[in-house]
Design brief:
Radius of gyration: 21 Å
Largest sheet: 2 strands, parallel
Number of helices: 7
Strand content: under 5%
Shape: globular
Mean pLDDT: 81
């Protein structure tokens, strides 16, 4: 990522290493808490948190700049590097909407704006 590349440059010569880790889906309690069920493909390509951590530390110690644990994740990562980012965003949004996983935002209504304005604490008057 751009952040990791910039951080790596900032740290050059300091003895501290920055390595981008892109593990794909890592099953954890987060998915269950969010009500998100992994797809068959996500379950198939996922790695345990312990396996990701072990793989990431090894990659960092080897001096890798980028590490993508797992064969399927590495293939997807390499393929996505060839696709324009705008197209990836469009495809992802369509997938999220079709599967019902898209974030649903609504524009504030007059009643929510009024409610927010009337329930916000007023600043103390200064003497």
């Amino acid at each position: 990522s751009s952040f990791t590349r910039a951080l790596r440059e900032e740290l050059r010569g300091s003895g501290v290493v920055a390595c981008e880790i892109s593990p794909g889906v890592v099953p954890s309690g987060f998915q269950a808490a969010a009500g998100y069920a992994l797809t068959k493909g996500e379950r198939r390509s996922s790695m345990s948190p312990e396996d990701v951590a072990t793989s990431a530390v090894r990659a960092m110690l080897r001096g890798n700049r980028v590490h993508v644990p797992g064969r399927m994740n590495a293939i997807a990562y390499a393929a996505l590097a060839l696709v324009p980012k705008r197209l990836i965003a469009w495809i992802t949004a369509r997938f999220m909407h079709r599967t019902g996983r898209a974030l649903r935002l609504s524009a504030p209504t007059n009643s929510t704006i009024t409610e927010a304005a009337t329930t916000r604490p007023r600043p103390e008057a200064r003497a």
